[in-house]
Design brief:
The protein has 1 helix and 12 strands; from the N terminus they run ββββββββαββββ. It is mostly beta strands.
Length: 261
């Protein structure tokens, strides 16, 4: 069983634009290259600013961006930031709390804190330490989460590595390698339990499908994979596996079906 997943839309990831114009005069070929230089955005304090297209962005404080924001390089956000539109960046660093009232597209996104995305997420690498809420789908090459998250649609990645301090939830999860772990006690886990005392560290999902699936503390209706490991705390309706199924004594599966030859 080989999982066939949808690839992220790389066309949405922002890069520097280059325009080439070729002219011929009297048999001589002349080529010119024109690159538009974007301004940098620097804003701090308590303020609002219009959206736009920038080379880089540094946003610090309680800030509202009144429109879509596109950044060719690094977008750094610290504090409480709201983007009233789509956010596109080659690289994103978010510390604190930020909200995107549209779609988020980033080559690499590092989120430390709380992030809320009203649309979908796509890119190459998502690194989360905190809480992420996505109303639509999340499609990246690598998804690493330490904390909790909620994806309203499909979480689709080549590698999914989840370490739960709180609740994880998605309609479906698809990937080549999928790993879910309940984290041991630590200073960060104590802070998480203080912030969200009623949130148990468990994953809730309708369907999980991948090549190599290794789960703990997961509740799912269907799990499909070539190699499937059900660790402690798993409650699964139906498991379909191609080559191997390993089930911990503390895991429950109502139905186990071998699909490989």
């Amino acid at each position: 069983m080989a999982f066939r997943r949808r690839r992220p839309n790389r066309g949405a990831i922002v890069h520097d634009g280059v325009h080439r114009a070729i002219e011929r005069n009297f048999g001589i070929r002349e080529e010119s290259v024109m690159t538009e230089i974007r301004p940098d955005m620097h804003i701090n304090g308590v303020s609002s600013t219009p959206g736009g297209h920038y080379r880089s962005a540094s946003i610090d404080g309680v800030i509202k961006v009144e429109g879509a924001l596109q950044v060719d390089g690094l977008a750094r956000m610290n504090g409480v930031v709201t983007v009233k539109g789509d956010l596109k960046a080659h690289e994103l660093e978010g510390d604190g709390k930020f909200k995107v009232q549209g779609r988020l597209s980033a080559g690499t996104a590092r989120i430390n804190g709380l992030a809320d995305v009203a649309g979908s997420v796509d890119g190459e690498h998502m690194i989360l330490k905190g809480m992420l809420s996505v109303k639509g789908d999340c499609a990246v090459e690598r998804f690493e989460a330490e904390g909790g998250f909620e994806v309203g649609g499909l979480l689709n990645a080549g590698t999914v590595d989840i370490r739960l301090y709180g609740r994880g939830k998605a309609r479906e999860i698809g990937g080549e390698s999928i790993r879910v772990r309940k984290m041991a006690r630590s200073a960060w886990k104590k802070i998480w339990e203080w912030m969200f005392p009623k949130w148990n560290p468990e994953m809730e999902v309708d369907v999980i499908e991948g090549d190599d699936v290794d789960l703990e503390n997961t509740i799912a209706r269907v799990v499909r994979g070539n190699r499937v490991v059900l660790g402690p705390g798993c409650r699964i309706g139906r498991v379909e596996y191609g080559s191997e199924l390993v089930r911990h004594p503390g895991a429950k599966a109502n139905e186990e079906v071998k699909t490989g030859a």
